[in-house]
Design brief:
Blueprint: H1 2-9, H2 16-30, H3 36-56, H4 60-86, H5 92-121
Helix pairs in contact: 1-3, 2-3, 3-4, 4-5
């Protein structure tokens, strides 16, 4: 969610290199195969960069389903990667738990990021 937000509102601070390194860090922390999150986050950042101006023009309520769609795309990329490399012998609870947690936390986190961005960064 943070990568999505910063790529949309501050593309100069969040590029593919940051997304790739964040994905690698997430792979190490969550014990998923190395490169799994790095690939999916990089693809998402490139997509968001392509349509960032359209997303910035949207209202907060409309932005939430778009973030949900990006979470589904992220998980689909990871699922395809795991099935092609490991088959179906993988701990699926790792992949299933993250999108559910993201959907629960997403509205609060996006609203907080918008508030912080408008109050702190735009005031300068």
């Amino acid at each position: 969610i943070g990568l999505f937000y910063w790529r949309m509102y501050r593309p100069d601070l969040c590029g593919p290199i940051l997304a790739f390194s964040t994905g690698l860090l997430l792979d190490v922390i969550s014990t998923t195969p190395l490169g799994l999150n790095a690939l999916s986050k990089t693809v998402l950042i490139l997509l968001i960069g392509r349509y960032g101006k359209v997303f910035r023009a949207l209202d907060f309520i409309v932005l939430l389903p778009i973030i949900a769609i990006f979470v589904i795309i992220d998980e689909t990329i990871q699922w395809v990667w795991i099935v092609t490399t490991s088959g179906y012998h993988f701990r699926w609870d790792i992949l299933i738990g993250r999108p559910v947690a993201t959907m629960i936390v997403m509205p609060l986190m996006v609203r907080m990021l918008i508030f912080l961005h408008r109050s702190c960064l735009e005031a300068r």
